[in-house]
């Protein structure tokens, strides 16, 4: 008689295939056709009736500049603060740099609930309005909540479907990692990115719909439909298809990134917002006295379909649209992405893997042009595998929009041996790092979500 089985397989070999079947279901799912999602979002936008208007700082309800430090904080001591960040060292700069930054030490939950219909995994997506989005209502995770929100600090209604992600035994966990947010505008901010599969009955509220991975991938090819938090979680989805090899081994990749992290001389820390060098506070904004890339502003929000019907808050507003793009090459038939070990002052581990190009397209300067920027900007349509505009986190950023692209490059524009700080990695290697947490930055995760959902066909 055999002994009872007590061990669980370390890897679910069927999970990749199940995600693959979901990614292949593009035109319609159990809930609705893909072509019906945009009209549904427009209808939910009419129902939400989100109103956002700029106000001076003195009209912020519950927010004030602290005496002494000048930090902008809420009277509850919860949510987040706007403080100063001082950074020294880092690539190409020996001078100290100062700027405002959002400090939100609590870990939020970005959770997507999964369920199988007709043998195909579907994901419960939310039509959620955010004050900073250029298109107010976008496809969001099932649960998108800071700890202050889901513990009731705002005094509003309970977050729907939350128990699936915080209750032991709430379902089968498919993906669960801690991930960074924007290292340029947040100070050491992390969110829990999680997918949970349920086998029980789930009643979908009017603001929720079940979609396949392929349907979401099709919508990612459209501008401003899928929000940043959804893209971050979806980047962790396993991608079907075995890779026969890579230019560098997984151990070599980990060693390369560890070497960059250990060797970075960047140091950063919080300082008072008052008196930041190169910044000035006016009645309605905090702006750079030189050519700054963003400002801090204040808004008043009225929202009939949120946990609370109205509030005010500060937001970070970029002054220009961004660009994030991967160059792609095939080596011995295997696609590789050119990743950049990017240093950012707000990241917990200082260095994370970023797209080949990330930032704001700029004019040539004395320091030269950003590496590979011209290759991305000049990419012909037949070499551009993906190109769409997406907004960043609309709960903290106002009108923050970036162009996201994947461009196939040739040996003349991107050699097999890239310059220091760059490395060719396969999508599978990058996906493995996403599922380990805080190795791949949020911009690269957006592009990885295109691969995981089939929005980019390799």
TrEMBL record:
Occurrences of domain dTDP-4-dehydro-6-deoxy-alpha-D-glucopyranose 2,3-dehydratase (ranges): 35-235, 252-451
Stored Pfam families: Hexose_dehydrat
Taxonomy, superkingdom: Bacteria
Protein name as annotated: NDP-hexose 2,3-dehydratase
InterPro entries, A to Z: EvaA-like, EvaA-like_sf
A GO MF term: lyase activity
Native source organism of the sequence: Streptomyces violaceoruber
